[in-house]
Structures are given as structure tokens and as C-alpha cells.
Design goal:
Layout: E1 4-5, E2 10-12, E3 14-19, H1 39-53, H2 56-72, E4 75-80, H3 91-102, E5 105-107, H4 117-133, E6 140-144, H5 150-162, E7 167-171, H6 180-184, E8 193-196, E9 209-212, H7 214-219, E10 234-236, H8 245-259, H9 266-278, E11 286-289, H10 296-299, E12 307-312, E13 315-319, E14 322-323, H11 328-347
Helix pairs in contact: 2-3, 2-11, 4-5, 8-9
This protein binds zinc ion.
Length: 350
């Protein structure tokens, strides 16, 4: 499936294959209690404090802001991975409804983990089960093998199998999760999303798609995944740093090129195209860009391309660069208010 039609300055809707819509309020958040010195500490001191602080009202406005920014970037479909351990029940509905209001397609999953005990893991599984049983579009989320008991991994894969969906899981992002392949080898299926894969061996033996998130990997100093060596289809995600997929494509190209001077932009462009295997409906969406042609060699070096209009399922959700279904100013204002609430909570957290 081609991404675009260069002659018409148009592409299909872009797909973000791994996002954390709950993280849109985190920008500018208070400093952690001390400076993280490793990837593990970035998780413990930043992200696992943020997810504990979230309530459903903060989540709603975080998702609306992130969904708005997605359509403003020509991204019409998002594969989301969510965690809010103190507000689990109903969280996937909040995400699905907020995206529907803005006009973005979303696949939801709740990241199951044993970080909050067996009961926390069970509640996460139940949220995935509840959402899928109610007809929600999604997958079964798992945080990562290294934060899950073996029974939890088996339960998640069985739940996915029962619902005929894949498991959406972080895999070998940092060295803490180096044992992921051994623990998941007998469970993984072709419809799984294996996010990151930085520390997987070439002969990992897993099935599924690899979702590459180059900027996040650089930001966390975990190393370069060099995803082509893994021998699986590759899709592109942002890991929660926005949903501007042309920007992620450019970063993916620059990082690939640093690794291999012979690499061409067609390679990361094909990673965008893999998104249509995950969210096929996005291929029916249309983005008209202010400038063309939308050729990979040109876009790899074009840092100022914005959508003029975005159509989802034949309906304009963005016209003349502005959202049509929601009030962008209101969303930014309300999201700002919720961000301030979140920051106060984080400052008062142990
Ligand atoms: Zn992630």
C-alpha cells in the first residue's frame, strides 16, 4: 500500500503504530526527585510516577490534545498503549471516546503489569477484556516481560487469542528486558506488536511486527534497534512523543543513515506503509499537504510540511489547517488546566 500520490500533493492518512496518548500533558512536567542515571531510573522516576498520578479527567484532556495534534500532523490512526494504575477501569473508553470526538481512529490497549502486584495485573487484564468484549477496537496490552510474572504473560496471550487480536508489548527496549525473547518465544504470534526490540538478538525467534521509535530510543539512550536485522515487518511509532509521523520518518531516516551511509529514505517510508497492515482503514483517509510532491527523497529533508486538509472516512476533520469537529483553543486551554493539576500532584508525590 503506497503512502501517497506525489502528483496530487496527497497522502493517505498516516498511522502512528505505537503511542502513549496519556503522555501529552507531561511536557514541561516537574523535575523528578533526582536525576535518572539509567533507562530503568527514567522509567521509575519519570514515567511510573506520571502514570500513577493520572485520573480519568486528566486522561480525557491529554488524549484530546494528543488526538488534535495527530490530525494537525496528518495522522489519522493511532495504536495506543495505556497505563493509569490508579484509574484503570473505563480508561480505554475514555481514550476511544476522546479520539472519536476529535475524529482520529484508535486501537486501544491497557498495559498489564505486575508492578502493582497480582491484583493490579488482574485489573489490567480485566480492562482489556471488558473493552474488547464491549466491541472496542483494540489489542491486549502488556507493559513488558520484565515487569510481568509468567502467569500474567500467559493470561494476556490467551485473552488476545480468545479475542482474535494481538498483544501490544514493549520488548527489549533496555537491557533490563534482555530476557524478553526467551520468555515470549512460545507465546508470540504474527499479529503481535513488538515495540522497540533494541536489545533483541538477530535470531530472537519471535513472531509479530517490530515497532521502531527512533526518537524515543535516542532520548532514553537505550541504543539503536537497527530494526531491519530483526527479520520482521517494521512499523513506525512515536512512543508518546507526539504523533507527527512525517517527523518520525525524518528522524528514522537520519538515524538509519548515521548507521548506514547507503540507506535511502524509501526504507523508513516503507515503515510508514506497514501502518496500513495494522490500521487498514487509514488507507481510505486523505491528507492534502501545503506543498508537494510528497516524494520520500524530498520529504526526508523537508522540515516544514503541514496538512492543509485531512479527511477521515470522507469527512473533513481538518480544513485550512484547522480542526473542524472540535474547538482547538478550548482543548489546549483545558489540557493546560489539567496539566497544572497533574504537576501539583507530581510535586506532592513520594
Ligand atoms: Zn511505549
Amino acid at each position: 500500500m503506497d503512502v501517497g500520490d506525489p502528483a496530487a500533493n496527497e497522502t493517505r492518512g498516516l498511522v502512528c503504530a505505537h503511542h502513549h496518548l496519556y503522555s501529552a500533558l507531561a511536557r514541561g512536567m516537574p523535575s523528578p526527585p533526582r536525576t535518572p542515571t539509567s533507562f530503568r531510573e527514567i522509567l521509575e522516576l519519570v514515567w511510573w510516577r506520571l502514570d500513577r498520578a493520572l485520573d480519568l479527567e486528566m486522561l480525557e484532556w491529554s488524549v484530546k490534545l494528543a488526538a488534535l495534534e495527530a490530525i494537525e500532523s496528518g495522522t489519522t490512526a493511532i495504536v495506543d498503549h495505556h497505563e493509569s494504575p490508579n484509574a484503570i477501569e473505563g480508561s480505554l473508553d475514555v481514550i476511544a471516546n476522546a479520539c472519536a470526538e476529535v475524529g482520529v481512529r484508535v486501537s486501544c490497549s491497557y498495559g498489564v503489569t505486575n508492578r502493582h502486584g497480582q491484583e493490579g495485573a488482574q485489573r489490567g487484564l480485566e480492562e482489556n477484556a471488558r473493552f474488547l468484549a464491549s466491541g472496542g477496537r483494540g489489542m491486549v496490552g502488556v507493559h513488558a516481560a520484565f515487569t510481568c510474572d509468567p502467569d500474567t504473560l500467559v493470561a494476556a496471550s490467551e485473552l488476545a487469542e480468545k479475542n482474535e487480536v494481538g498483544v501490544h508489548i514493549h520488548v527489549a527496549e533496555g537491557i533490563d528486558d534482555i530476557g524478553a525473547a526467551d520468555r515470549l518465544r512460545d507465546l508470540s504470534r504474527d499479529n503481535w506488536l513488538l515495540v522497540h526490540g533494541v536489545h533483541l538478538r538477530d535470531d530472537h525467534g519471535l513472531s509479530g511486527y517490530v515497532v521502531h521509535n527512533p526518537r524515543s530510543n535516542m532520548n532514553n539512550s537505550v541504543g539503536y534497534a537497527a530494526p531491519q536485522r530483526l527479520g520482521l515487518p517494521i512499523a513506525l511509532g512515536t512512543d508518546g512523543i507526539g504523533a507527527a509521523m512525517l517527523e518520525e520518518f525524518r528522524i528514522a531516516y537520519a538515524r538509519l543513515r548515521e548507521h548506514d551511509i547507503m540507506a535511502t529514505p524509501e526504507v523508513p517510508w516503507s515503515w510508514l506503509e506497514t501502518g496500513y497492515r495494522l490500521m487498514p482503514e487509514a488507507a481510505n483517509d486523505r491528507v492534502t499537504w501545503f506543498d508537494g510532491p510528497v516524494d520520500p527523497w524530498r520529504l526526508a529533508f523537508h522540515t516544514n510540511l503541514r496538512p492543509e486538509s485531512v479527511e477521515v472516512d470522507g469527512e473533513f476533520v481538518l480544513k485550512e489547517g484547522a480542526a473542524t469537529r472540535v474547538d482547538a483553543t478550548e482543548i489546549r486551554t483545558k489540557a493546560g488546566e489539567q496539566a497544572r493539576r497533574l504537576f501539583v500532584k507530581l510535586e506532592n508525590m513520594d
